[in-house]
């Protein structure tokens, strides 16, 4: 009887899952399998795909632009993730402390995250205008020479990083705030009774207890930053002189502009593998910290 | 009862016969251009009660991606706008419908010959161009007067050669303490458009008649990059984005400005901007050749041709092309000789100052792969301008890359 009921429940469960599963199958799994298949083909999207074995991968090995784009992607991750993690943590601490205008600050930091990518990028493009933009004018006021951010080979990537941090940090702040609010106040009270100072409370209570949030923010930001595309596409189109061309931008160019769908998919597959490593890492770290908490 | 059924059926068939042929039209025009297109489509619908053209506006940067996937999915629009420079890359892949059967001889014969030739691929007509938009030179009259660049009659001096342009630009910049003497975007505007103008003026060719393919002249490419590099090392120009270049010119901060004629929909309406427009300067002994592209209409290929729709689409395309005087309000030059010489066109503001540029336009070569080569030109041009590549290395890179694309 018990077995029968269990079976019935599973069936019912799948029935409830069904609408989602059908959509997942049609819009995710089938295209995914197809795109994996295409990495072995030369395909211009209009014609019939031609099997070329590992041709796309040998092309990738000798394609300087592929390697440059991969490096630009990693460079973007290196520049973006640490400030997001550190700043979102510090801002969350600030908002969580007993200060005035807390609610205002919380909304102010979260607001950019609700904007669409094109609005964010166009706004920042205007701010970056060296002669008429706000940043240039402030720099001029302080006697500095304005920088032509988006056409400067050195500053173009940092400009995109600044825009990205400003845009996405709100989400990480919310994660940290949720984490901070879960730390029982009694821990701090007990520590205070033992004579702990602020520094000790921070390093022996707050930071260790937020371990899961650190992992979550770190890994999701790495995975999201590896897929950087919209900001580059809208603000620099990969320029100047290809200095901000990231892997996603290159995949887009090869696939949709130059009709090399197979090659684009092969590169997307490489990016997928890199992200898979980080996703796996996240899973391991999460499981480890969950086990730790159980002990 | 039976009679009622018959009447109903007859009525239904009658209505079907009266029904309009609807065609979907993809455009990417916004601003002044957008209003004009919508107006012209409305006019077409009013004049052709049997056809209804429905405009679907796709974002400028997205149209070709969407068109590509729509054709691949077998469900493209009946008509789409397409730049002439992209035609070979789509036509060579069988993505477009040949139009020879549908467009009248009179219209085709009225075309500026170079443009008509480029609307073909492999001998077949695939596009109906409805404008040409060359790169031209804009100059700020107020700044040039302030810098003392006027003739005996007090008229501003308009540079005819590159040397004149550079010396005027330098003089105005220094005298007025401006950031730049000439403003321009570094990507497409310099790397492709100005490059093609200067390279052609040097006597360079992009298309090799003998081998029927793309071919650059290494020596002339190098000279062109030398010239471009000097514009920046001399301080006359500074690297900037399209928006920045426009904002400098529009706010009286830049005496000269390289841009396409499309800005003529906006610049004359700006208060406080007294400007002139003319052809690009020329190398002494050469004509002022310049880069130019065209907007065209194409009929994307569907899995199964629907003759009624194609005929309706072709009619729309031809009518639109003939309405070019109206479309020219957006700044573009007409491509039909009859319109180019028409009173209606020449009456538009300042058109007399640049209508003649049509004669000197160098359109993109009809070669598959041009799309990729020209984008590489933007990148190499930027590298030269930013001092990240010597003109010598840049020339070799462009020639090698072109070979690579053609072999692929």
Structure explained in plain terms:
The complex is a heterodimer of chains A (295) and B (408). Chain A is mainly alpha-helical and 295 residues long. Chain A has 13 helices and 2 strands, in the order H-E-E-H-H-H-H-H-H-H-H-H-H-H-H. Chain A has helices spanning 2-38, 55-62, 64-96, 102-110, 117-127, 134-141, 156-182, 185-193, 198-209, 211-226, 230-235, 247-257, 261-294, and strands at 41-42, 50-51. In chain A, helix 2 crosses helix 13 (261-294), helix 3 packs antiparallel against helix 4 (102-110) and helix 10 (211-226) packs antiparallel against helix 13 (261-294). Chain A is globular. The model of chain A has no long low-confidence stretch (mean pLDDT 91). Chain B is α/β, with parallel strands linked by helices and 408 residues long. The model of chain B has no long low-confidence stretch (mean pLDDT 91).
Low-pLDDT regions of chain A = none
Strand segment tally of chain A: 2
| Continuous helix count of chain B | 18
Low-confidence regions of chain B: none
Radius of gyration of chain A: 24 Å
Helical content class of chain B: 40-55%
Radius of gyration of chain B: 24 Å
First CA to last CA of chain B: what distance?
70 Å
Number of strands of chain B: 15
If interface size is counted as residues with C-beta under 8 Å from the partner's C-beta, which chains form the largest one? A-B, 27 and 35 residues
The amount of beta strand of chain A, in percent, is under 5%
Beta fraction of chain B: 5-15%
Largest sheet of chain A: 2 strands, antiparallel
Give the ordered list of helices and strands of chain A. HEEHHHHHHHHHHHH
Overall pLDDT of chain B: 91
Which percent range fits the helix content of chain A? Answer: over 70%
Count of runs of 4 or more consecutive helical residues of chain A: 13
Average pLDDT level of chain A: 91
- Ends apart, CA distance between termini of chain A: 37 Å
Biggest β-sheet description of chain B:
6 strands, mixed
């Amino acid at each position: 009887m018990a077995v029968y009921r269990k079976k019935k429940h599973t069936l019912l469960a799948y029935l409830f899952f069904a609408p989602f599963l059908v959509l997942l199958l049609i819009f995710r799994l089938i295209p995914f399998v197809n795109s994996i298949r295409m990495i072995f083909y030369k395909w211009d999207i209009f014609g019939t795909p031609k099997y070329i074995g590992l041709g796309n991968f040998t092309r990738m090995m000798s394609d300087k632009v592929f390697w440059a784009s991969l490096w630009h992607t990693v460079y973007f991750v290196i520049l973006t993730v640490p400030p997001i993690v550190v700043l979102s943590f510090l801002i969350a601490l600030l908002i969580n402390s007993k200060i005035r205008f807390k609610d205002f600050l919380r909304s102010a930091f979260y607001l950019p995250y609700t904007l669409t990518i094109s609005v964010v990028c166009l706004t920042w493009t205007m701010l970056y205008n060296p002669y008429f933009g706000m940043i240039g004018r402030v720099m001029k006021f302080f006697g500095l020479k304005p920088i032509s951010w988006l056409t400067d080979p050195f500053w173009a990537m940092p400009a995109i990083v600044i825009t990205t941090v400003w845009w996405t940090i709100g989400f990480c702040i919310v994660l940290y705030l949720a984490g901070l609010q879960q730390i029982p106040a009694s821990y701090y009270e007990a520590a205070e009774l033992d004579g702990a100072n602020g520094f000790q409370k921070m390093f022996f209570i707050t930071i260790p207890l937020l371990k899961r949030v650190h992992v979550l923010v770190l890994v999701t930001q790495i995975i999201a930053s590896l897929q950087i595309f919209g900001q580059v596409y809208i603000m620099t189109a990969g320029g100047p002189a290809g200095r901000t061309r990231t892997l996603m931008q290159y995949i887009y160019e090869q696939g949709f502009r130059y009709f090399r769908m197979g090659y684009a998919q092969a590169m997307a597959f490489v990016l997928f593998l890199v992200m898979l490593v980080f996703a796996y890492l996240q899973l391991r770290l999460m499981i480890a910290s969950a086990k730790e908490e159980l002990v | 009862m039976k009679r009622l059924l018959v009447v109903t059926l007859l009525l239904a068939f009658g209505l079907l016969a009266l029904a309009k042929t609807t065609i979907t039209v993809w455009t990417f025009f916004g601003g002044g251009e957008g209003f004009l297109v919508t107006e012209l489509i409305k006019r077409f619908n009013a004049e052709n009660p049997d056809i209804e053209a429905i405009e679907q506006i796709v974002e400028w940067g997205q149209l070709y991606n969407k068109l590509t996937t729509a054709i691949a999915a077998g469900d493209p629009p009946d008509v789409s706008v397409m730049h002439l420079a992209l035609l070979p890359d789509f036509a060579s892949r069988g993505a477009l419908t040949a139009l020879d059967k549908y467009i009248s001889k009179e219209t085709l014969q009225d075309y500026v010959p170079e443009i008509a030739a480029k609307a073909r691929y492999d001998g077949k007509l695939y596009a109906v161009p409805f404008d040409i938009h060359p790169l031209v030179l804009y100059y700020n009259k107020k700044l040039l007067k302030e810098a003392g660049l006027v003739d005996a009659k007090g008229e501003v001096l308009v540079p005819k050669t590159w040397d004149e342009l550079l010396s005027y630009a330098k003089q105005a910049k220094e005298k007025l303490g401006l950031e730049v003497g000439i403003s321009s975007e570094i990507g497409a505007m310099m790397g492709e458009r100005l490059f093609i103008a200067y390279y052609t003026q040097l006597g360079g060719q992009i298309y090799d008649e003998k081998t029927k393919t793309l071919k650059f002249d290494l020596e002339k490419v190098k000279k062109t990059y030398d010239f471009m590099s000097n514009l920046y090392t001399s301080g006359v120009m500074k690297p900037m984005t399209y928006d920045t270049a426009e904002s400098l010119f529009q706010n009286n901060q830049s005496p000269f400005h390289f841009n396409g004629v499309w800005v003529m929909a906006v610049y004359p309406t700006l208060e406080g901007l007294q400007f002139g427009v003319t052809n690009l300067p020329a190398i002494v002994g050469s004509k002022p050749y310049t880069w130019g592209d065209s907007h065209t209409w194409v009929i994307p290929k569907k899995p199964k041709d629907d003759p009624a729709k194609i005929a309706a689409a072709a009619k729309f395309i031809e009518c639109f092309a003939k309405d070019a005087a109206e479309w020219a309000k957006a700044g573009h030059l007409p491509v039909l000789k009859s319109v180019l010489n028409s009173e209606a066109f020449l009456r538009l503001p300042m058109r007399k100052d640049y209508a003649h540029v049509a004669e000197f336009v160098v359109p993109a070569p009809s070669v598959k792969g041009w799309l990729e080569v020209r984008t590489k030109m933007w990148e190499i041009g930027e590298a030269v301008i930013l001092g990240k590549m010597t003109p010598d290395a840049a020339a070799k890179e462009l020639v090698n890359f072109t070979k690579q694309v053609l072999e692929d």
